[in-house]
Write a structure and sequence with these properties.
- The protein has about 550 residues and is α/β, with parallel strands linked by helices.
- It has 4 domains: about 120 residues, Beta-Lactamase; about 80 residues, Helix Hairpins, CATH 1.10.287.130; about 160 residues, Heat Shock Protein 90; about 130 residues, 3-Layer(aba) Sandwich (Rossmann fold).
- About 45% of the residues lie in helices and about 20% in strands.
- It contains 14 helices and 17 strands.
- The protein has a 5-stranded antiparallel beta sheet, with helices on both faces. A 5-stranded mixed beta sheet has the order 7-9-10-12-11, with helices on one face. Strands 14-13-15-16-17 form a 5-stranded parallel beta sheet, sandwiched between helices.
- A hairpin with a 2-residue loop joins strand 9 and strand 10.
- The chain is elongated.
């Protein structure tokens, strides 16, 4: 509020003139009123702040400036002033002539006559709207900074928890792989065929579990970067659901879980990527098996609902708390991240489900009555619009995960394997020799070039990440050879660099195909078969022309 200089010298007329000048020139609104709230004087700043002229306000009630919800302030203030009490720095809201609401800070003092009796009121008001706005903006900024700091701390904790979980989830299967490998390699480690089979099954099961973790990470990376592509085609959804259920039935039966399915014959048609649809269902089913106790039940329903198809997975498992339910489909989120948690995983499975379903134009939801009361997951996919020629496009089931490895007879095929890892070379050699393929191996790019010149193989399978000269340098040297020395030999990249950009780089470098590690034997055999068949066909055509 304004600090007034009260003159003590001069004639009464001079003092009065000086006081009037102070009131007139003040930046604050200075108003006087009687004990009934009727305005008696109104200075220029009051007119500037509130918009009313002195002629409009003098003789009127001050409550013209009061919002309706603050009309009770005036009686309380007047009662306090009648008792001779001053009101200091009272912050409130007033209404201007143009209807604007402004924040004001008011100091109200009683005016007394010579006998000390209160005869009026003086009021000094200051517009603090801009100050309040600045303070509010500062508070909001501080709140945003605190929220950002809290979010950064939360993300940091999630990162630490995820790295700890990732380390645990990768090391756990690795422990079984290395442990059983040591047993089987040791002198007299096992003479029992059953124990040998158990060890090999354990190694394979844990290697696949580790591969699944890596695939989930790569898939999520592709989704986040918008690089995941769908092989869209008509799908026989009943067959996809049936295959998915049967693929996890051994796991369910191993825990004594009753797994049933009910399929609506009208549940289709839908369009999408059959592999990704099966991945969605497999993730949901394995998640339910993981959280359902021994002797529980899991039910799978496929039904048509209006213009979409719903796939529901209902289990009698651990359930989901109401607090965690909104975070269920977030990346890396897990209800229990402690080292004593009952269930493993990276917290990516359900996030992948959500992303893959949305890529198919659908939605996924989860519901649970609470802890230990089971849960229900519902995937909704849009129906494919019917077309007159829809029978021209056969419905495609998802590939079965239980197909046995077939080893075709590729007698006469010669393959060169270039890889610095002896185990990797030996693995490929063992797979291909079962197909009667002649296999030559090389441990470096230089050895690979010499082998091409010496043996003239039908194709080259080369690793990318090798010390010294990598797979790209090897391919460059290979293509610089004359065709008579093998410069045109087909080459396939077999590498642990498995991102979409790695595949694109390999193909642009000149590799005919890109096969990511860990590879499936079926895929390796299919690639070798296709290239060998095409090469033999081209040779036959050339011989016919000559």
């Amino acid at each position: 509020m304004s600090d007034f200089f009260v003159p003590t010298a001069g004639s009464p007329e001079e003092i009065a003139a000086l006081l009037a000048a102070i009131v007139t020139s003040s930046d604050d609104a200075i108003v006087s009123k009687d004990l009934n709230g009727i305005v008696k004087s109104w200075n220029g700043s009051a007119e500037r702040i509130f918009g009313y002229t002195a002629e409009e306000m003098v003789g009127k009630s001050i409550t013209i400036l009061f919002p309706r919800d603050r009309l009770d302030e005036e009686p309380r203030i007047l009662e306090q002033l009648r008792r001779g009490q001053r009101v200091d720095h009272f912050e409130t809201i007033r209404v201007c002539k143009d209807g604007r609401l402004i924040d004001v800070s008011v100091t109200i003092s009683p005016v007394k006559d010579a006998t000390g009796r209160v005869v009026g009121v003086s009021k000094v008001a200051r517009d603090i709207t801009s100050i309040k706005r600045i303070l509010k903006e500062r508070e909001e900024l501080l709140a945003r900074e605190q929220a950002a700091r809290s979010e950064a701390e939360r993300v940091g904790r999630m990162k630490d928890e995820f790295l700890a979980t990732l380390s645990h989830e990768l090391r756990t299967p690795l422990n079984a792989i290395l442990g059983w490998s040591g047993i089987l390699r040791s002198p007299g480690g096992t003479d029992s065929p059953d124990e040998l089979r158990e060890g090999l099954e354990t190694i394979e099961r844990n290697a696949r579990a580790q591969s699944q973790l890596i695939e989930e990470l790569l898939d999520m990376s592709k989704i986040v970067n918008g690089k995941l592509r769908l092989d869209v085609q008509p799908i026989d959804l009943q067959m996809v659901v049936s295959d998915s259920v049967e693929s996890v039935r051994p796991s369910a039966e191993g825990k004594g879980i009753r797994l049933t399915k009910v399929l609506d014959p009208r549940g289709g048609p839908v369009t999408g990527d059959p592999n990704r649809i099966q991945q969605i269902l497999w993730n949901l089913l394995t998640n339910s098996i993981k959280v359902t106790p021994r002797g529980g039940r899991i039910q799978v329903f496929l039904r048509r609902v209006n213009s979409h198809v719903e796939i529901t997975v209902l289990d009698s498992g651990n359930g989901i708390s109401a607090d965690f339910l909104p975070q269920l489909f977030s990346r890396f989120s897990q209800a229990d991240t402690s080292i004593s948690r009952h269930h493993g995983g990276l917290g990516l499975g359900l996030a992948l489900v959500k992303s893959l379903v949305e890529l198919h134009g659908g939605s996924v939801s989860a519901a649970s009555p609470g802890i230990d009361q089971g849960s229900t997951f519902t995937v909704s996919l849009p129906l494919t619009a019917a077309h007159a020629n829809e029978t021209d496009a056969p419905l495609t089931p998802a590939p079965s995960v239980a197909d046995a490895v077939a080893f075709p007879d590729l007698t006469g095929c010669h393959v060169l394997v270039v890889d610095d890892e002896p185990d990797a070379r030996r693995l490929i050699e063992r797979i291909l020799t079962k197909c009667h393929v002649t296999v030559t191996t090389a441990a470096s790019a230089a050895e690979g070039i010499q082998a091409v010149r010496r043996h003239r193989p039908d194709m080259v399978l080369s690793d990318i990440g090798m010390p010294g000269e990598d797979g790209y340098a090897f391919l460059t040297e290979l293509r610089q050879l004359p065709n008579t020395e093998g410069g045109d030999t087909p080459a396939v990249a077999i590498t642990a660099f498995a991102r979409s950009e790695d595949r694109r780089r390999a193909l642009m470098a000149g590799f005919q195909m890109h096969l990511p590690k860990p590879m499936e034997a079926e895929e390796l055999i299919a690639i070798v078969t296709n290239i060998f068949t095409a090469s033999r066909r081209d040779r036959s055509a050339n011989n016919a022309r000559t």
